[in-house]
Design goal:
This protein has 262 residues and is α+β, with helices and mostly antiparallel strands. Helices cover 46% and strands 12% of the residues. The protein has 8 helices and 9 strands. Strands 7-8-6-9 form a 4-stranded antiparallel beta sheet. A 3-stranded antiparallel beta sheet has the order 1-2-3, with no helix packed on it. Helix 4 packs across helix 5, helix 5 packs parallel to helix 8 and helix 7 packs across helix 8. The protein is elongated.
């Protein structure tokens, strides 16, 4: 690659890109690790996507934090110029297109969707919900999805890791959990007793709770998938690098990776 004057050329696709001070940290070097990577000791920046297309098969993994097999870091090859091994790591989807593609190819996602739809249909049939009350019906759907997440083994593993490694943030999540319980209590009381009123549920509780629930579902969904990629060269190829969201995946950690073929 060529780096100079804010212009960077990918050594694989030869595409020239201008990088302003914000994108290069004022040093003329790309700082966006989602797009650019230095895979070895050579002064050669490449697009991460170009490297993945050339060296890594497109395989997504559905991650579950369980006591089972661990993610394997297969070799990615060696640079023919400097002889340095390419250091593997994993990354989550970086776009909605990648997230949807990984989900479509995940058999468990189809099973969960069918199960969620069935439970929601039965619940809306049994509960005293007006046929045209779409807000309450959508709340039931949200609760079904969140309950499946709440009782999943992966969330239990995340909570354990959070408690062990980030104990200072636990009070915040407990407050958020209690806040969600209070909001859901409004919906439950409305269904059972008619209080609070429908206007309160529709125009106060729902606008507050739905975006919060959407955010929780989206975060869990986004961090459910990963694929193998190249790490920035750090001077040693003996150990795999950290995942940008999930931390270190080392031998012995409780992580299962179910490969999704494309």
């Amino acid at each position: 690659s060529e780096i100079g004057g804010g212009v960077i050329r990918c050594s694989i696709c030869n595409l020239l890109e201008f990088q302003g001070d914000e994108a290069t940290g004022g040093l003329g070097l790309p700082t966006d690790a989602r797009r650019w990577v230095f895979p070895c000791r050579c002064v050669a920046a490449v697009h991460r996507s170009c490297f993945e297309k050339k060296h890594i098969p497109t395989k997504w993994f559905a991650l579950t934090l369980q006591n089972a097999n661990t993610i394997t870091y297969d070799p990615l090859g060696t640079c023919k110029h400097c002889g340095e091994d390419y250091q593997p790591t994993v990354r989550p989807p970086v776009s909605g297109k990648e997230l949807v593609a990984a989900t479509i190819r995940d058999p468990q996602a189809w099973i969960n969707s069918a199960l969620t739809s069935s439970i929601t249909y039965v619940a809306t049939t049994i509960l005293p919900i007006e046929p045209n009350d779409l807000v309450i019906q959508y709340w039931v759907l949200q609760q079904t999805i969140l309950c499946m997440i709440f009782f999943s083994a992966r969330l239990q593993g995340i909570v354990n890791l959070l408690y062990q490694n980030s104990a200072s943030s636990v009070p915040f999540y407990l407050k958020l959990y209690c806040f969600c319980i209070c909001l859901n209590g409004c919906f439950v009381l409305h269904l059972l007793t008619g209080f609070p009123s429908a206007n309160f549920v529709h125009f106060i509780a729902a606008p507050i709770y739905f975006p919060l629930a959407h955010a929780m579902v989206l975060i869990f969904w986004h961090t459910n998938y990963a694929k193998r990629t190249i790490s920035n060269y750090s001077g040693s190829s003996k150990h795999p690098s950290s995942h940008p969201l999930f931390g270190d995946f080392e031998i012995g950690t409780a992580v299962t990776a179910n490969q999704i073929d494309e």
